Structures are given as structure tokens and as C-alpha cells.
Amino acid sequence: MRKRIVDVVAVMVIAVIAIAVSLWLTPMQSVEAVGQTVRVGAAAPSMSWSGPGEVDLFGQKLDTAIDFPGPIRPRLELTNLQLSSELADLVGPAGNDAARKAAQDELQNALVDGWRRYLIIQILIVAAVSLILIGAVAGWQRRSRRATIVMVVLGVVVAAAANVGAVVVTAVNSVDQLRAISSIESLVGAATVPGQMPRNLPSAKAGHVVVIGDSTAAGIGNPPLTNPTKDDSACERTSGAFAVALGRASNWQVTNLACSSATIREGILSRQERGGEMLPPQLTTALDAAPSALIISVGANDVGWSHMIGLCAALPDCGGKASEAYFDQKLESFARDYLVLLTRLQALKNPPKVIVNTYYDPLPDDTDCVADLGITDEKVKLLHGWLDKMNTVLEQGADAASFPIAKPSFAGHGLCSPDPFIQSIKGNAPLHPTTAGGLAIALADQAALLAAGMR
Predict the structure, then answer these.
(1) Which positions ≥6 away from 139 have C-beta within 8 Å?
(2) What distance in Å separates the CA atoms of residue 213 and residue 13, rounded to the nearest whole number?
(3) What angle do CA 284, 285, 290 make, to 5 degrees?
(4) Which terminus of the chain is more solvent-facing, meaning fewer CB atoms within 10 Å of its CB: N or C?
């Protein structure tokens, strides 16, 4: 009797181990949908009986906007964004309902197919692992051949049954939720941004570059433009902006549409209120200008980068759980909005060359000049970590969309250097680039554009 109890316990333990190992070993399944590549697998088991799945997006692990039944839920990884007519049908203007429905069906069927393939492989791995483990236990116990076969069969059946109850049944029920995903953007619950993108762009003007973005691109705090427009003044665009330097350093016509305080959601993809003016979406205005190249500088306002620096200076421990949670929440929101921007760009027919800028490090070298402000070396390390996270999102998103990256470096010219490329803490726009800093960014963009074939 005691031996049977031990056998039952051993079989149950092996079943649990086999299921856990299978979830670890089963490879994510790649599927093609609307011209995109999505990998489908299972998230780590949860203790709750229902909840969100997981989406791996640009280095961030995000919860899905929809809940799935059971402790085992889908994990989706968006690895590639490519231009396709199907993607355009999903994110372009309404009007062709049949094409939109066909694109949605293709996406949903691909996700369901990937999920089912994952489950089949997972079931096979459970059987294989349980067979190996139970066979090893039986051999260790020196059982007879018949007893070994009985134990192995019983163990595999128990493991398979446990897997069906713990994984397969609940996972199969996730199919309906996968069929509710209507677009690439809804994979991560990205917010709907007002306004529609044009489907057919005017012919690109050779040598025309348009810059869109935030205060870094606007060049705030530097000398004013000679003849600023009303929008220039509202957005605080200056002669020290990197767009101006890029125009001077090349034969290209460079237009700066960047605006202080702009985010992807308010400024890039939809209207922005600034200086009493209601400004049109930067991206729409840029595309209407028929550029041959588009430079994008976004992210700092989306994640509250300036706020995080101020928070770090004010708090004794800026790396506490509350600060980390706040930044991670802002970063997740940024990743979702960034996906919306990238998919809308990828859905364009004959799009311009797109360059995505990462952000410079304001404190790459000496940090003595900020010690009196409460920013210690330990806090600088935390700020560098947050900056790296933001730039990782920018880089991985651009890489997924096959957009080149420009990485301006202020090494040797940080805030505390003898020749800073950054405005001082007491300057008109603290920590923003000086005119020299704008030139450094312009040179990085120029190199990226030339490498992308801009002439």
C-alpha cells in the first residue's frame, strides 16, 4: 500500500514537472499575418483563473487589453512590421469594409493557427518528458519489465490528463479571445488616435526633409528664428534646432514641424493646443508636404523624462518602487503609442525615408556640477538606466519597422563639461541641446540619411 502511494505521488510530481518543462521548452510559433510577423506562445502560468495575456513589444512586456480564461494564456511577440496592402486596410481610412474584414480575418486566423500549433507541440513535449522521467524512476527502482511498462503508461496518461485539465482546456477557450483581436494595434490595447492617414501620398519632392517631434527637435531655449511664423512662435522653434543645422550642412530643404510638449498622441498623430493655437497633427502636415525623408524625434514627453529628472533631484531615493513603477507605466504607454505611429507609417504607399532619433545622454561624463542639486552618482546611474530603456523602445521599434536609427552622442560635451552641448540648469531650457548640440544631432541625422540613400 505504501509503495502504491509513493508511486502515485511520484507520477503526480512528474506530471507537474513535465507540464512546467514543456511550457519552458515549447518554442513560440511564428505566423505571418497582414504582411507582419507575430510569434505566438504561452506566458508564464498565473495563479489566477483569468486575466490578460502578454505581448512582448519593443523590449517591453505588456498586458493584453483583453482577458483570457485559465492560468495559461497566450504570449504574443511582434517581431516585424512591413508595408503591405493588408496592413493598410487595417489602419488606413475607413471605406473599404470588405478589405478591412478580410485583413482582420487573416490576422485572427493566423493567431489562432499559431496558438494551436503551439499547443500540439506542448502536448507532445509533455508526453516525451513524462515518458523519460517515469522510465528513469522505474529503472532506478529496478522494476520488472511489465511493471515498468505499466508505470510508464500510467504516468504518461496521468501527465496527459493533467495537461489537458491545466493547459489544453483553458488554452482552447482562448481561441475566441484571439478572434476578437481586430488589428495589430489592438494586440497591445493601443489607444485609438483621432484622425486618419492618407492612403495615397503626393509625389515626393527630391531633397525635401521634414522633422517632426518635441522640444528637442524644436530647439527651444536657443536664439529665435529670423522671421518666425505664428506656429513657430507657439511651438518655440528656434534657429538652434537641428533641422536648421541640417539644412545648412546639406543641400536639402529642411522643414521643422516639431513642437514643444508634443507627444505621439497629442502633437504627432492628432492636434495639439499650444500658445493659444490649435495646431494640426504634425505627421499629417508632414506627409502633405510630400517629403522624400522624415525625421522623428519622440519619446521624452511620452515618458515624462524631464519630470523623472526633477523627481530624481528632489527625492532622496529616486529609484524607489513608486518611481520605478511610474516610469515603467509611462514607458508601456509610450510603446503602445509608438506602435500606432509605426504601423501608420508602414501602411503608407510609397512612404518617405524615415529616420528615428534616439536621445542623447545629458550626463555622459563628469557629474560634479549637479551634485549640489541632489543628483548623486547613484542617481545618475538610475537616470542612465531609464534613458537606456526609452532608447531601447525607440531602437527596437525602428528595427521592427526597418527604419534607420540616428544616435547623437554628446560624449565629452555633457552638462558638466567645459564645452557643453546642453543648456545649463539655469538656462532658458534646461538640459535641452544648445546650438552646438543641435549641430551634433544634425550630423547624426545626415549620416543616417546618406546611409539610407538620400541624395
Answers:
(1) 148
(2) 56
(3) 95
(4) N
What CA–CA distance (Å, rounded) separates 345 from 352?
Answer: 9
* Residue 127 in grid coordinates: 508526453
pLDDT tens-place string over residues 262-274: 999 999 999 999 9
What is the phi/psi pair of residue 210, to 5°? -120, 135
In the numeric block, the cell 555622459 is attached to 364
Question: Would you state the cell numbers that stand for residue 123, as one nine-digit string?
Answer: 502536448
Residues 6+ apart with CB under 8 A from 386: 303, 305, 308, 327
Residue 189 — left, alpha, or beta (φ > 0 → left; ψ -120 to 50 → alpha)? left
Model confidence pLDDT, tens digit, residues 323-358: 888 888 899 999 999 988 998 888 888 889 999 999
Rounded Cα–Cα distance for residues 270 and 266 (Å): 5
Q: ∠ CA 332-197-108 to the nearest 5 degrees? A: 60
Q: What is each CA distance from 125 to 30, 111, 431, in whole angstroms?
A: 18, 21, 54
- Among 175, 166, 177, which residue's Cα sits nearest to residue 52? 177
